[in-house]
Design a protein that fits this description.
This protein has about 150 residues and is an alpha+beta fold. Helices cover about 20% and strands about 35% of the residues. A seven-stranded antiparallel beta sheet has the order 1-2-3-7-6-5-4, sandwiched between helices. A hairpin with a 2-residue loop joins strand 5 and strand 6. The longest helix is centred in the first third of the chain and has 15 residues.
């Protein structure tokens, strides 16, 4: 069981992973030899009842059908999304469903998902056409917490 206070840290790690990975791998230099400052991405956060999946959320990113959306974070600079939800459905059921739906939508998992031994936690990383998809699941009390983060459109 993961304490509730660790949820923000999991979300922060997911956001940082995507923000760092959003770059194209190239850098431009000004004539003075310095890199121009990139504009900071606009961050939009919705929590609780106000949290809703954005209309422009990529249609090929799986969303668990019985998930209650708890939080939605959007970084507009790279079209990065972080969705956090919860469901009373069994951890194993959610894990297999998310894996199936990701693969059915063409996402490639370069390695088998990682599970933390002797816990109910799964981390799956996928890629597709230069985009990334990270799905982290963990058991918290009687619920399965679902974190989905993706970048690109």
């Amino acid at each position: 069981m993961i304490p509730e206070r660790t949820i923000p840290f999991v979300m922060l790690a997911a956001i940082l992973t995507l923000v760092v990975g959003c770059g194209s791998g190239t850098s431009t230099q000004s004539s003075a030899g310095q890199s121009p400052a990139a504009p900071a991405p606009e961050v939009k956060v919705q929590n609780g009842e106000a949290a809703a999946i954005p209309d422009d959320f990529p249609k090929d990113v799986p969303l668990y059908k019985a998930m209650d959306v708890l939080s939605v974070t959007t970084l507009t600079g790279g079209k990065t999304y972080v969705i956090q939800g919860s469901t009373p459905d069994a951890f194993e059921q959610v894990d297999m469903s998310m894996k199936h739906d990701a693969e059915a939508n063409g996402w490639q998992e370069p390695a088998t998902g990682n599970s933390v031994r002797d816990t109910k936690m799964s981390v799956r990383n996928y890629s597709k056409e230069g985009r990334t998809l990270n799905i982290t699941l963990f058991q918290q009390d009687a619920n399965t917490v679902i974190n989905i983060s993706t970048n690109g459109t």
